[in-house]
Amino acid sequence: MDSCCSIRRRSLLAPLLSAAFLLALAACRHSSQLPTYGTISEFTLIAQDGQAFSSRELKGNVWVADFFFTHCLGPCPRMGSQMHKIEMTTKNYPNVRLVSFTVDPARDTPIVLADYSKHFLAEPGRWFFLTGAQQTLQHLCRDDFKLGNVDGSLMHSTRFVLVDGHSQIRGYYETSQSEGHSAIDQLIADLKALASERS
Fold first, then answer.
1. What are the distances in angstroms from CA 101 to CA 2, 110, 197?
2. What's the alpha-carbon Rg for the chain, to the nearest Å?
């Protein structure tokens, strides 16, 4: 009786273990197959706590970046909510960071950014809101992320960017109302796959 049950258990477990192995294998394959679109150069800006923030703090972490401004009445509040969703769904991944760059450094001071971050329940040390020299932001937005200009026009991309632990861009994701839901879900899946890799 016992041996019969044991055989039956093994026969039931085998497909489940095989399926789990295949899923793990697919996740590894998926993350390594993500394309590379370029590398983010080193930068130093100012975070919402008023302290200097160096890109070196992001080394070894997988992160999502966006460009916004605090008094935006258009897509920025939606983007902030989507970033919060990413923050919450990756809370068990200690090597995930979120980085929001302002396109309006003249008005988005650290104090303004700190107040804005509270609206989205941003976790300190995990989600950074950055301001600083316009030329630094312009270089990052136009030359590194290839998302447009920080030139005072306040025009900005609504795409999120996935960056790996080696500062390489691994994906762009649209956040618009029509495409945002599936794109954000895909971003979360790709983010978790990269965050699960060993550097």
1. 63, 12, 26
2. 20
The residue extents of the domains of the chain are 1-33, 38-196
CA dihedral sign of residues 41, 165, 58, 176: positive
**Please, what is the angle between helix 2-32 and helix 180-196, to 10°?**
110
Q: What is the pLDDT of residues 32-72, one digit of tens each?
A: 689 999 999 999 999 999 999 999 999 999 999 999 999 99
Q: What tokens does 172 get? A: 């762009």
Both tokens assigned to 64: 């999502």
Q: Are strands 44-46 and 52-54 parallel, antiparallel or unpaired?
A: antiparallel
Listed in sequence order, the DSSP H helices in 33-167 are: 76-89, 110-119, 134-138
Cα(83)–Cα(75) distance, integer angstroms:
12
Among the listed ranges 20-29, 115-124, 135-144, which one has the minimum average pLDDT value? 20-29
d(CA 52, CA 132): 9
What is the distance between the alpha carbons of residues 97 and 167, in angstroms, rounded to a whole number? 12
Among 135, 155, 151, CA closest to 76: 155
For CA atoms 148, 149, 155, 159, give the dihedral sign.
positive
Fold of the CATH domain 38-196: Glutaredoxin (3.40.30)
Q: How many CB atoms are located within 10 Å of the residue 31 CB?
A: 20
The answer, as to whether pTM is greater than 0.90, is no
Measured CA to CA in angstroms, residue 154 lies from 105, 107, 148, 157 at distances of 10, 11, 10, 10
174, two tokens? 């649209």
